[in-house]
Write a structure and sequence with these properties.
Helices cover 33% and strands 20% of the residues. It has a 6-stranded mixed beta sheet with strand order 4-3-2-1-5-6, sandwiched between helices. Strands 7-10-11 form a 3-stranded antiparallel beta sheet. It comes from Streptomyces globisporus. This is Aminopeptidase P family protein.
């Protein structure tokens, strides 16, 4: 992967040079990992004008959750525990002869930005914006391979839970068990805080598990994902507990399933972000559930669980091939519950079979 990371750093260097910056400082952890192979806690990456340097507040210990830095990179350790790597990087860039430094202002606090200016007063600081985030949108096949394994781990954990006794257990207990199973199957850890909602809590996108116990006849909705070598996937499923589903549950489930299928089928290179959102959203709006829908149908995934692109009504841009995204419509009826169906897919051209589904757990409405 050293060559891959070197190529990525070269692309960023070229873009910053075209904007007039002689050097670049990357501080957002996911961006550091993308360019350096690993992101030890607190580390930042300085590109040029001489060699590239990873500045760390302490020695990297090789934890899987943070990745392993590219061996071709120079690693500098700060001399004391109170030093700030971004300030040290500004000083190093100035000492190397750089007159300008591109930085990620969206990741820096005002205080850190001021400290850099004080440490290197002759160094002009310029904002590189979301340049690295844009580079990260299209994944290579090794990145997609990591996402595929993360999805397999997630499917395994969810499948095992569905085979266990659920009635009487709390949402919190089920969420903790799912996260333990993710690690047992080889995940670095959960990709995000696992959500489990039962009965009136089901179908909510960001429900925090409570002490409510699973009851017969409940909808049970789960949203979870594994992180594998830093790459994060997402799955969401809804089930019925104990008995055959009621008529209203079948109708609501079929509607959300149709919306999710429409969103998945809209994924193609060249498709506008907003059109993918519209494909799923229109199905729910036509059925009278437009009010209260989530602000977006899906989003990109990778080294972060919520990356660009955003599949939302006002999002600008079009999909490329090899872009992994979620499609996750849902409907929540206050006091009754709801349905959420969520998959991670990779955009592929029709000639390659269309969108590649990574999360394989059945979307059939099961009674558990």
């Amino acid at each position: 992967m050293s060559e891959v990371h070197a190529v990525r750093r070269g692309l960023l260097r070229d873009r910053c040079a075209a904007a007039g910056a002689a050097a670049a400082l990357v501080s957002r952890p996911a961006n550091v990992r993308y360019l350096a192979g690993g992101a030890p806690p607190g580390a930042v990456l300085l590109l040029g004008p001489g060699e590239d340097v990873l500045l760390c507040p302490r020695a990297p210990v090789g934890e899987a959750a943070h990745g392993r830095p590219d061996e071709a990179l120079r690693v500098d350790l700060l001399p004391g525990p109170d030093g700030d790597p971004v300030v040290a990087a500004a000083g190093l860039a100035a000492a190397s002869g750089a007159e300008s430094l591109a930085v990620e202002e969206h990741d820096l606090t005002v205080a850190r930005h001021r400290a850099m200016a004080q440490a290197a007063p002759r160094l002009a600081l310029a904002d590189m914006g979301g340049t690295v985030e844009q580079l990260r949108i299209v994944k290579d096949e090794e990145e997609i391979g990591c996402l595929r394994i993360a999805a397999e781990i997630t499917d395994q954990a969810l499948g095992e839970l569905l085979e266990s006794i659920l009635v009487g257990r709390t949402e919190r207990h089920l969420a903790l068990e799912l996260e333990r199973r993710l690690v047992d199957h080889g995940a670095d850890g959960p990709a995000f805080a696992t959500s489990v909602g039962t009965g009136p809590n089901s179908g909510q996108g960001r429900h925090r598990p409570s002490d409510r116990r699973v009851e017969e006849g409940d909808f049970l909705s789960v949203r979870l994902g594994a992180s594998y070598r830093g790459y994060r996937c997402e799955i969401g499923r809804t089930f019925v507990i104990g008995t055959a589903p009621a008529e209203w549950q079948i109708e609501l489930y079929d509607l959300v399933f149709a919306a999710q299928r429409a969103g998945r089928e809209a994924l193609a290179p060249g498709a506008a972000y907003r059109e993918v959102d519209r494909a799923a959203r229109q199905t729910l709006e036509t059925a009278g559930y437009g009010e209260g829908l989530q602000p977006r149908t899906g989003h990109g995934v990778g080294l972060e669980i919520e990356e660009d692109p955003q599949l939302a009504p006002t999002a600008m841009g079009k999909l490329d091939a090899c872009v992994p995204v979620t499609v996750e419509p849902g409907v929540h009826l206050p006091g009754r519950g709801g349905v959420r169906i969520d998959d991670t897919l990779v955009v592929r051209p029709e000639a390659d079979g269309g969108p590649e589904l990574l999360t394989m757990t059945t979307k059939e409405l099961l009674a558990l």
